[in-house]
Design brief:
Structural class: mainly alpha
Family: Belongs to the FlgN family.
Pfam families: FlgN
CATH topology: Methane Monooxygenase Hydroxylase, Chain G, domain 1
Radius of gyration: 25 Å
CATH class: Mainly Alpha
Helix content: 55-70%
Keywords: Bacterial flagellum biogenesis, Cell projection, Cilium, Coiled coil, Flagellum
Strand order of the largest sheet: 1-2
Shape: elongated
Protein name: Flagellar protein FlgN
CATH architecture: Up-down Bundle
Largest sheet: 2 strands, antiparallel
Function: Required for the efficient initiation of filament assembly.
CATH superfamily: FlgN-like
């Protein structure tokens, strides 16, 4: 690719790809740590990891915005770049770096999603447990009676007088 005014600035683009790859590797490590902390139920460490994760996420957003701006000059974005005719103009090494970056993005997304679901599940379990301990019942919970019919938990009858 030539570096005419209308063309992509390859030096800047390559630098941004390398920077994003480095940050995403760090982010992936933090997500792995977060997963381990969730599994071990270490809430204090989770708060510390969340702050590190937030700081890295801000850096990633900033560099991603710069990369998007670089690609916007060619009416491209990172995900459409691989399928565009312009992709073949990159060297094999640059193509591999771009594909690795896209794989890292997907891996981080999947890890972050899994961690978020784990936290949500634990939160739901904790809330339900606290509701049971405190005697609160959800009115919309449907249970099956001994005859197999659906019943709600709203009005529970007692077994009778002893």
């Amino acid at each position: 690719m030539s570096q005419n005014t209308g063309e992509l600035n390859l030096k800047q683009f390559s630098s941004q790809i390398v920077g994003l790859t480095h940050l995403l590797k760090q982010f992936s490590e933090i997500l792995d740590q977060e997963s381990d902390v969730i599994k071990k139920n270490q809430a204090n460490q989770l708060v510390q990891i969340t702050q590190s994760k937030q700081d890295l996420a801000e850096q990633l957003n900033s560099l991603t915005n710069e990369l998007d701006q670089t690609l916007a000059n060619q009416n491209l974005n990172l995900s459409s770049l691989v399928s565009s005719p312009s992709f073949t103009l990159f060297s094999q090494e640059q193509q591999a770096e771009i594909k690795q970056l896209l794989e890292l993005i997907q891996q981080c997304h999947d890890k972050n999603l899994a961690n978020g679901m784990s936290i949500q599940i634990l939160s739901n379990i904790n809330k339900h447990t606290l509701d049971l301990i405190s005697g609160k019942h959800q009115q919309d919970v449907k249970l099956y009676s001994s005859s197999g019919e659906k019943t709600t938990t709203g009005n529970q009858s007692t077994l009778g007088k002893a």
